[in-house]
Amino acid sequence: MSESRRAFVLEDIDRVWIEYDRNTDTLNIVFGESSEEADEAILTESDVGYRMKGGRIIGITIYNFAKRLGIEL
C-alpha cells in the first residue's frame, strides 16, 4: 500500500445514523455513538471528510452533497 493510501476498519454498521444539513449542504454518516470523539480527521481532495478513532472510521461527511447529485434546493 502506498504512503498516500491507508486502511481503516469500519465497525458498528448496525448502529448508523445519517443526517443531511440543508443549510451547509452536507451529509453526515455516523457509525456507533454520535458523541464519540475522533482522534484523527482527514479531508480528501474531493471534499469528503473522515473521522477516525483508533484506526476505525466513526464518521463520514460529504460536503456539497446535493450539488454533487445535481439537485437544486
Task: Please supply descriptive tags for the structure shown above.
1 helix; 6 strands; mainly beta; globular; 6-stranded mixed sheet
Q: In brief, what are we looking at here?
A:
With 73 residues, the chain is mainly β. The chain has 1 helix and 6 strands. The chain has one domain (9-69).
Q: Write down how many β-strands occur, each being a DSSP E stretch of 2 or more residues.
A: 6
* Average pLDDT score: 85
Helix and strand composition category: mainly beta
The gyration radius over C-alpha positions equals 13 Å
Task: Give the helix level as a range of percent.
Answer: under 10%
Unreliable spans: none
Strand content bin: 35-45%
Tell me about the biggest sheet? 6 strands, mixed
Describe the overall structure.
The protein has 73 residues and is mostly beta strands. The chain has one domain (9-69). The protein is 7% helix and 44% strand. It has one helix at 65-69, and strands spanning 9-10, 16-21, 26-31, 40-43, 48-53, 56-63. Strands 1, 2, 3, 4, 5 and 6 form a six-stranded mixed beta sheet that branches. The protein is globular, with a radius of gyration of 13 Å. The protein starts with 8 loop residues before the first strand and ends with a helix.
What's the SSE blueprint?
Layout: E1 9-10, E2 16-21, E3 26-31, E4 40-43, E5 48-53, E6 56-63, H1 65-69
Parallel strand pairs: 1-6
Antiparallel strand pairs: 2-3, 3-6, 4-5, 5-6
